[in-house]
């Protein structure tokens, strides 16, 4: 059940999350005037476990949006297509206080001055990131992997 993760999300604000930037060049070399593909800009403080957890939830949201009930997709803009780069940009965004120790990136945390580490009020336990077993329908498997793609950069970029 996802309700047990409410306590984690109550501690997170938009300023704590990863960002994204638009991909301006399309595959055929034409400039996109309305970028619909975005590269993820990672938040330095987030651990890999937390990033994987949040990206899984993002993927579920995209899949849920595509599985609308009735004749039409939900109103409004579709969820963004966010792609992880092999060598992502990383930004030094604000880190939330009071998270479990495995939510913070260890290397990032170790670089903080001791008083800054104390200010974070880290819970000295690991957070349980387990999610319910949710199997993606076969018809979405091919088109539903967009979020988790890793964009391999070439020397030309």
TrEMBL record:
Q: Which domain of life is it from?
A: Eukaryota
Q: What is this protein called?
A: Uncharacterized protein
Q: Which organism is it from?
A: Lentinus tigrinus ALCF2SS1-6
| Lineage of origin | Eukaryota, Fungi, Dikarya, Basidiomycota, Agaricomycotina
């Amino acid at each position: 059940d996802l309700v047990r993760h409410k306590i984690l999300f109550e501690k997170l604000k938009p300023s704590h999350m990863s960002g994204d930037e638009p991909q301006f060049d399309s595959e055929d070399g034409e400039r996109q005037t309305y970028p619909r593909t975005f590269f993820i800009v990672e938040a330095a403080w987030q651990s890999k476990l937390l990033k994987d957890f949040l990206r899984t939830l993002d993927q579920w949201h995209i899949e849920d949006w595509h599985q609308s009930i009735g004749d039409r997709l939900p109103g409004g803009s579709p969820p963004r297509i966010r792609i992880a780069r092999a060598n992502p940009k990383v930004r030094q965004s604000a880190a939330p206080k009071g998270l479990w120790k495995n939510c913070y990136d260890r290397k990032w945390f170790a670089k903080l001055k001791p008083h800054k580490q104390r200010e974070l009020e880290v819970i000295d336990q690991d957070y349980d990131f387990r999610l319910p077993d949710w199997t993606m329908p076969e018809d979405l498997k091919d088109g539903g992997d967009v979020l988790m793609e890793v964009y391999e950069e070439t020397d030309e970029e």
